[in-house]
Design a protein that fits this description.
- By secondary structure, this protein is mostly helical.
- It has one domain (about 1-245).
- The protein is built from 14 helices and two strands; from the N terminus they run ααααααααββαααααα.
- The protein has a two-stranded antiparallel sheet.
- Strand 1 (about 125) and strand 2 form a beta hairpin.
- Helix 1 packs across helix 2 and helix 2 runs parallel beside helix 7.
Length: about 250
């Protein structure tokens, strides 16, 4: 797994993909942060920033995952990868953790936004209370954890879709549509009369699972859900390539 991981990390910085992702993510994320907090004045609301971040992840993260497997098929290097003395599990995990590392780097850089918030956000909102009084550090940490978990889940979905297609543009489009459906499915429950179906969709909805973290509670069941979500899609990716290896 280590060799695959290093190979993928290197490819992000020897091709434009890594730089494009970092530039797009940091620019869009920084703009969302500025508009929702620093420029909002007395109406500043950091919760709206994290809501915007959810949609940013759904649209931007496919840039990271589109090349993971589809590029191998397009360049004709897939057979060499499949016949290499490494397991399918190592291949999938190596590629997944490389993409996750790039996302973690982007998140770490974007988290410096909060230094600006703590330095300049002396905004009187209600009487003697300021923005930071109403938005405790624990709530920010919970939202950051939720953002990372959601990003990890979206990367797993993108990894699976990349393994299913040869065209990188198709991988991006399908991944964006899939992640947006995962985000928006919780809103669809309001229009479903069937109780069983409504409960099932709410259980699967990533937004429903994020609610505890976005409220500042580090709920272990939420982490278990996202870990299970990632494992399922990585398992499916492995099965796709396992069948391809013996085809």
């Amino acid at each position: 797994m280590g060799a695959i991981y290093k190979r993928e990390i290197r490819s992000y910085f020897t091709t434009p993909i890594g730089y494009v992702f970092l530039a797009v993510y940091l620019a869009v994320n920084g703009f969302a942060f500025s508009v929702s907090t620093l420029e909002a004045g007395a109406n500043s609301n950091i919760a709206s920033y994290f809501v915007l971040t959810i949609f940013i992840l759904a649209i931007v993260l496919p840039i990271l995952t589109m090349k993971l497997f589809s590029e191998e098929r397009k360049n004709g290097t897939e057979q060499g990868l499949l016949t290499a003395p490494v397991s399918i599990t190592s291949i999938v995990l190596g590629k997944y953790f490389a993409a996750l590392t790039m996302f973690a780097i982007a998140m770490a850089i974007s988290s410096f936004n909060f230094t600006l918030l703590f330095k300049y956000a002396e905004l009187p909102l209600y009487g003697d209370y300021t923005l930071l009084d109403l938005m405790p550090v624990g709530l920010i940490i919970g939202n950051i954890c939720g953002t990372f978990c959601l990003g990890a889940a979206f990367i797993a979905v993108g990894t699976f879709i990349s393994a299913m297609t040869e065209n990188q543009i198709s991988a991006v489009i399908i991944t964006v549509l899939s992640t947006c459906v995962l985000v928006l499915c919780s809103f669809a429950t309001e229009y479903i009369n069937n109780t069983f179906l409504r409960v099932a969709i709410k259980w699967f909805s990533v937004l429903e699972r994020l609610s505890s973290l976005t409220n500042g509670y580090l709920d272990i069941t939420t982490f278990i859900y996202f870990i299970s979500f990632v494992v399922v899609f990585l398992f499916l990716t492995g099965r796709v390539y396992d069948r391809r290896r013996w085809a």
